[in-house]
């Protein structure tokens, strides 16, 4: 494995030089005012990236999984019912977590490759006259299948049913890379992590709570201490933490938000879309198909690529690592062996992306697939040449 | 606040140059074999530092507080009783966590400044014929009071009573700095964090489970997912994680263990004792007293220093930060305002320590205490000159 | 300009992560023994990389140009004659330096693209019965033209003529990347820099002197102080410097030598050859020609690529920088505008190289050259697939 | 030797965190516009720190010694006469360099510990009716003796004599730490290095040329290429270098200038004076004397401290390194064994300085000198408490 080549896993992503340096801090006293100068603007920056005016932002020394647990344990009580679709590995795991925490999950089985079934959500919510469903889980971007769902439609399903359930959105692999609208979509709890669109090492669960979600914390009885948002909120009033914070990562988060907001969120999203379109052009040139069923659900952060029947897609990932020192993602769960994944989020240029596409080509050819060398590269080159970036980022 | 002066808080500690660099890693694929080359020796290293032959070591992207939650939720069930002494802020918080998770806590109130009351534990355990107590909590080193307790005595209390309760030990501010004997003391769950004796940034909960503790996980019904040790154990079999690991910190942990073991644990402990004795010599020269009641409980990682009646000890900490750019620790809880704390653990030389002592002197004099400038420094100099280090560490 | 993409200039090269960290040192006392632990193995490492048993190695805080000046001023006197061929910009500059230092230069004009004219050297040396020629200059690898010359042939020319002139070799862009044999070729002064094969930032002139060259220093009267090798040698006896050394770069050099020697010099050279062959396959696929006249002089560290008549090759370089954030090298001197250069030395993988080739393709197509997108990439992919690396380097 | 303790050598100095990071750059193309964004403001910043409106600033990948050679070789011709005082090791070495370059040096022997003898310069210059003296050498701060001289007086000596000689000033250990007035003092060539007041690693010679010095370059015939200011000036017009620049160090220099100018030069000088006064208070408390003869020549960057007759002062330095891992400076040349030196320049807080003073005390006591432990620390504490810094620097 080489440390020189870019990684093409769907997170953790390639870390920009400036963020490497921001995270690599000497020890400071996390009870000194200097810490507040890091924490407070980092929370403000996250709020802006969520497109929220006043969500409560909590940042735990944890990961996205811890963010999910934060959402559940702070707003729900044992025996509560939640509504969730299973359309990929990450939605599956979230459902599993709910069950392990004693929640009942109304599961809407959905084909892996399809988006969240907002219409079926709508039906179920309308039928739930007693409002026994306390929360709706929505995975904005299924990292396992490269599928982006329509959160606005989920919100409409709730609104059309006049249903008061809380809306949880897993935005781990979408936030800071694809458009996310906390306020407009009526999200109640949004969950992100440091290691995807924020371009940092793993180690932070980043969570936004709406006023409604905060209200729910008062009656929720699932046990929690480490992930308790009230303890966190009380400490934040003093620019502090209830335990030792991950200062360097928070410093990185502050700087990452600054970079993203300076670039402009629209530019960030357009940049991701452009890189993704080049990858998709290559996939088409190879004659392969995405796991994502239809263009409206194509993810701009990760592409899961179906390989021909009888071929073990995981071999591509193993071969790329062993032979070329390049990391791609394997298929997970139901699509294990059927797909391999190219992550194309975070700090990634067109030039870097071409090297990933070229590597995938070599691997597929090495393993006997009928792929013309250079074909995917040429298709992506065509796309990138024809679609110059809106704004060239400053050196970072 | 200066980034140049050493910190004298009881963690996070000053990070050695080599560990700064070990943590500052480019992104690697945490599902590649390279990750196993980091994870596996890191777990082995921790086990050796715990002085255990075969404890199961789990490392979460979290903090010591998350380590406590790991201990409780994996081994206990709602309504279970635990025995705990409250002799400082951190034992207090652990008790609070137990209660919030639905456990009954038999609390042994103990003066802040005293060690764990092993004899009272013994009495209670002997009386608990029905073995309703499922776990005993023991804070090895109370960071709030600078008190180190006798864990072997707690084990004897259990053994003398023939009591099967699990023994939890909070070693967050002792492990890797003071002698800790997982196997010999019959510890069932030990909890540490990356940011103290391991000399790393905060961000890792480091936990050891005995075979008995692992057995208890099978019946424990407290809900857990993020902190589930079984999920972790299953992933470890594949040198992987159930979610995204904090790779850089793990790399740092691996290297930190290597440094500590190369130095030799006895040397590490002797080094901490030497530094601490110099600080204590200074305190005596100032005519001040430790919060720790008797020499047998003096901590080698942190000293809580009582200031004269009527003086707000917290002013020293504020003044040191504002006027000299140096971080000390404030008094917490019952001893807030009565003590200030000098952390003297981790990567700290005699020379650095003298600068902390000199700063404390200036602050106390500035604030009107009757302290002779240079007096504490001279006492510490005397001690350090008379007690050269056993082994001079290699440059790091 | 992006800091994310690899650079494809013929030095400074992409710096491996571990060397970045080795160079980034806190201040140490350069008069302490710790400095000797850096300096001495660094000098030994360089000697091994030069393939010399006992050359005197000198390392100045300077650059390759300073290394040239070191060679001249320590061994020659005003009015001395040197023999030199001009076959590129760097041999031209070295000749210019000689003239500015009052030396007479017998210049053998040679086509840019050809190697050193050993036969013409032989003729001249044979005719120089009086041995008025005191030194022969030989540029091992002309960075401007991508031409590697045959130093063994130059040595034979000297030997066949029985001529005692000192042999200077500029190995700035060859040493540590292509085979170099100080002892076998009878080199008297070899000059290298930190920023090419040694994969470090610029800032070190690295020079090897033979016993014969050291003897010549005793009579040489060109003025010198900063570059005086005797001052340096005297200081080296005490593991010190006559002035303040560039400690971090020396630490990096020590580690770089360790990396290269651990990989094995034959593997290092084979690695460079493999990467270069892929680039050359791409160039052939594009239907373009190298500046280097014949395959026997093809450089494995840099390719200078001729573009069609009437096309300004420099536009490719400008366009690559502005549009794709990628750095190539422009043509210099006689071949300015006629060639552009792809540097392929140092720490560069096949995957990174493919991104450079893909970028060059896009640039040439953007600028109207008749280049088929993907064609060069495919040719290089073919080559790299068919020629797996002898040894896969460990992560660094 | 510890990497944790601050260094107390008179350069290289302790490098601030932010400058460590500024120097640690990935490779960029030094022929791209990005390089100009580093080079040009760095040159402007140096000019401001020299207090010059339009000096030509040249920055070589070299050291202060290379800066001296730049001064001589660009402005003088073989056989030229220069006037110089020898009052310490660095003035001695500069004289030696002149002689080795074929210059005649009129040496004014001066006691080591005294400043430059401006009156004797005046006499000599007045007697030199034929203006055979082409340059006057002036060491602003003799690092060997801790003596700062009066450059304005040297200028007056020249002016009073109506003498046209060029004025060279070695400001290596004064510039950016003590007041320096290029324009006001009529300096013609000023020489500095990166590793002192600029707080960077060694590796840059920083030189300022007046218009008069630039004019002198046209007739100067000493050979030069690497250090040729015309080559450099021509390249600077294109924001480039005549060879490969040390980009990371230049980036650090740019940022260092920014830090110093943001702090304000008067604040920088006052900060150095304050730290130095504390050290001098400690020395007085020890009952020791400075090498510097009178307070008007006390250096604010380094103190050379005389130890009692019969005691080898170098033992303190060796002992400090071996026993406490702290670096002081030895006595050089005429005062070898008679003095040891504490460097107190660059990025150094009062708190760090106290640790150096405490270490010196321990060493002297260990070696049998009659020094009261804590006495020097107390005196410095008194001074620092009574003289708070004008402005507390921001965290860096």
Gyration radius of chain A, in Å: 21 Å
Q: What string, H for helix and E for strand, traces the elements of chain A in order?
A: HHEHEHEHEEEHEEEHHHHEEHEEHH
Determine the most extensive contact between two protein chains.
A-B, 60 and 60 residues
Looking across the biggest beta sheet of chain A, what order are the strands in?
Answer: 1-9-8-7-4-2-3
Give a count of the beta strands of chain A, DSSP E runs of length 2 or more.
Answer: 13
- CATH superfamily descriptor of the largest domain in chain A: Type I PLP-dependent aspartate aminotransferase-like (Major domain)
Bin the helical content of chain A: 40-55%
Tally of individual domains of chain A? 2
CATH structural fold name of the largest domain in chain A: Aspartate Aminotransferase, domain 2
Provide mean pLDDT of chain A, rounded. Answer: 97
Task: Write down the overall geometry of chain A.
Answer: globular
Sheet with the most strands of chain A? 7 strands, mixed
The quaternary organization reads as homotetramer
Euclidean distance between termini CA atoms of chain A: 25 Å
Q: pLDDT under 50 segments of chain A (min length 5)?
A: none
Going by CATH, the architecture of the largest domain in chain A would be 3-Layer(aba) Sandwich
Modified residues (N6-(pyridoxal phosphate)lysine) (chains A, B, C, D): 196
Family (chains A, B, C, D): Belongs to the class-V pyridoxal-phosphate-dependent aminotransferase family.
Cofactor (chains A, B, C, D): pyridoxal 5'-phosphate
GO molecular function (chains A, B, C, D): alanine-glyoxylate transaminase activity; L-serine-glyoxylate transaminase activity; L-serine-pyruvate transaminase activity
């Amino acid at each position: 494995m080489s440390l020189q080549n870019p990684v093409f896993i769907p997170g953790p992503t390639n870390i920009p030089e400036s963020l490497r340096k921001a995270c690599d801090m000497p020890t400071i006293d996390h009870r000194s005012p200097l810490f507040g100068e890091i924490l407070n603007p980092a929370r403000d920056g996250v709020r802006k990236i969520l497109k929220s005016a006043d969500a409560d932002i909590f940042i735990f020394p944890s990961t996205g999984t811890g963010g999910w647990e934060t959402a559940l344990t702070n707003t729900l009580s044992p025996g509560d019912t939640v509504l969730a679709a299973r359309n990929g590995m990450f939605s599956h795991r979230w459902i599993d977590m709910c069950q392990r925490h004693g929640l009942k999950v109304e599961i809407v089985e959905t084909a892996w490759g399809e988006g969240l079934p907002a219409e079926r959500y709508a039906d179920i919510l309308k039928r739930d006259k007693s409002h026994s469903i306390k929360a709706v889980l929505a995975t904005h971007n299924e990292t396992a299948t490269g599928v982006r769902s329509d959160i606005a439609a989920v919100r409409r399903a709730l609104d059309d049913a006049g249903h008061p359930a809380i809306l949880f959105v897993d935005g781990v692999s979408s936030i800071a890379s694809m458009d996310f609208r906390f306020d407009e979509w009526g999200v109640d709890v949004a969950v992100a992590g440091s290691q995807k669109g924020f371009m940092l090492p793993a180690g932070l669960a980043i969570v936004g709570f709406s006023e409604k979600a905060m209200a729910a914390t008062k009656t929720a009885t699932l046990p929690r201490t480490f992930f308790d948002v009230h303890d966190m909120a009380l400490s934040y009033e003093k620019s502090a933490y209830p335990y030792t914070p991950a200062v360097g990562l928070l410093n990185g988060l502050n700087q990452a938000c600054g970079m993203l907001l300076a670039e402009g969120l629209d530019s960030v999203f357009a940049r991701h879309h452009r890189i993704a379109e080049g990858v998709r052009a290559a996939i088409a040139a190879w004659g392969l198909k995405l796991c994502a069923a239809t263009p409206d659900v194509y993810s701009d952060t990760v592409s899961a690529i179906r390989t021909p029947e009888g071929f073990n897609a995981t071999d591509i990932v193993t071969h790329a690592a062993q032979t070329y020192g390049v990391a791609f993602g394997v298929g997970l769960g139901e699509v294990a062996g059927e797909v391999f994944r190219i992550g194309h989020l975070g700090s990634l240029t067109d030039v870097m992306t071409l090297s990933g596409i070229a590597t995938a080509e070599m691997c597929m050819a090495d393993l006997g697939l009928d792929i013309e060398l250079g074909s995917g590269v040429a298709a992506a080159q065509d796309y990138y040449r024809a679609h110059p970036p809106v704004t060239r980022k400053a050196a970072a």
